Amino acid sequence: MNPHPLWRESKPPDVAWKAPKGLTQIERAAEQDNAAEGRDAREIRLPDDRRVHASIALRVLRQGRRIYAYLRWSVSGKTHERYVGEVFQDSRQANLAEAWHTVRQGNLLDMEASSNTIAQETVTDSWASSPASRAIMRANKRRDTRPEKALRSAVHALGLRYRVDTRPIKDVRRTADLVFPRQRVAVFLDGCFWHGCERHHRPAKGATAEFWNTKIADNRRRDANTDQRLKEAGWETVRVWEHEDPAVAARRIEERVKANRVQ
């Protein structure tokens, strides 16, 4: 999971989301390339084998206090977009980088996987009546990532039943991906980037390196603190990396649930 602090109580400052005035088309492309960590990282391969480059658009609704990120691309003069999610950083560049990471993590550039929904996500033919309603409805799906669904299915196939996206302890603001209340077992599915996987995470480089490396370090400290607080409350924590085989991880979870089962 990727826990974010609550956004500020007032409208986000322009520097957190608005593009600087006077940017040329080349400068706008360079800004996106930098945030995505390379121009190739913005490439979409369409079902007919054509290739286009996508960009991230950041928006704040009128009187709103949240920044929404959208993936945008054009085909034959028609613009399409997909909702990516909310971003929470203090600068536009950091928010663009966070949005591009979400795009990669959710495989949102895979047009074959999303071909059934593209027609619903064009700017001119949207099925929602306003940007606000589109943001709310699409955001409801954000937590159900492919690794989460795969892990749930594998655990469910073993005959285990659980709660999803729940706080193990109500007065402690830490949400687990799977919770077994009777056995007091909490499962966290950790993203390799956000939680600093030793196998796949590589320290950030470049202009935003200090920001990202500090953020990952803070997430790891929070994970350790979460484990300790749950342990003190009599809970057992199981952490699963997103790169793990869901079936193998499910059997590990099953072992801990059975070991903690109330006789």
UniProtKB/TrEMBL annotation:
CDD domains assigned to the protein according to its UniProt record, in alphabetical order: Vsr
Family, per entry: Belongs to the Vsr family.
EC numbers: 3.1.-.-
Top EC group: hydrolase
One Pfam family from the record: Vsr
Record key words, sorted: DNA damage, DNA repair, Endonuclease, Hydrolase, Nuclease
Organism: Haloactinomyces albus
GO molecular function: endonuclease activity; hydrolase activity
GO BP terms in the entry: mismatch repair
Protein's UniProt name: DNA mismatch endonuclease (Patch repair protein)
